[in-house]
Specification:
The protein has 72 residues and is mainly α. It is 58% helix and 0% strand. The protein is built from 2 helices and no strands. The protein has helices spanning 2-21, 26-47. The longest helix is centred in the middle third of the chain and has 22 residues, at 26-47. The protein is flat. The termini are far apart.
């Protein structure tokens, strides 16, 4: 019975590693997509695409002092 479990686990690991490290696996997909993602980011930065006209920062001085982290 133990031999069957070991063979089954070995087969599962073999298939899972093949799917993970294969041509369509996540490792290869990330390697192939990095240049495209970089080109899209550069294009958006160059043209200003995806940037909206946001209002200026409305930061105000806090009304209470910063927390000290000590119990009160």
């Amino acid at each position: 019975m133990i031999v069957e479990y070991i063979l089954l686990i070995g087969l599962f690991v073999f298939v899972a590693m093949g799917a993970f490290n294969g041509d369509k696996g996540p490792v290869q997909v990330f390697k192939d997509s990095a240049p495209r993602l970089g080109a899209r980011v550069e294009q958006q930065l160059a043209t200003g695409q995806a940037f909206t006209n946001t209002p200026p920062n409305n930061w105000q001085v806090p009304s209470a002092p910063a927390p000290t982290g000590l119990p009160q």
